[in-house]
Amino acid sequence: MSYERPQELLKPVRRRFITLTFTIALLLELLPLPVGSTRWLPDVVAILILHWAINQPRRIGVGMAFLIGLITDVATAGLFGQHALAYSITAYLVQLRQRQLVMFNLGQQALVILALLQANQVIMVLVRLASGAAFIGWGYFLPPLVGALLWPLLNKLLLLPYRHHSV
């Protein structure tokens, strides 16, 4: 008779670490990249918001997602409020089912992350269209696929410092 191994208990996550991850993500957004490379790069800030909203729902919720979105709008000189709206809606969607998402394996979580990142992109396209901008193209919906593929690796890396290491 085989029993499933229980989920590992993690050490508490420090606010400084969460702040550091968002600072690094915002700096990545500001890096000058070659033309065309941004067509496949996922929104790292959105992925981090989803990760921390799933794993630390008391620290990163709708309000923090909105604030981080406003900071992202200012940092990227985008349409003010588009990231804030998209991030807060996707953080809300995560909070609706957070207890279930924690129990999913990384493959199932990656599928949910794909849907949430696609919703994030749709919201940003709708905001741009409402402001009078032209449709950016269907290639705009490719980065969420890359983000979902990177989800298991990113999840493992961000939780690595908080695992109990037995000596």
TrEMBL record:
The organism's place on the tree of life at top rank: Bacteria
Membrane-protein topology: Multi-pass membrane protein
Subcellular location: Cell membrane
Keywords of this entry: Cell membrane, Cell shape, Membrane, Transmembrane, Transmembrane helix
Pfam families linked: MreD (PF04093)
Keyword presence, rRNA-binding: no
InterPro entries membership: Cell_shape_determining_MreD, MreD_proteobac
Entry protein name: Rod shape-determining protein MreD
Organism: Vogesella facilis
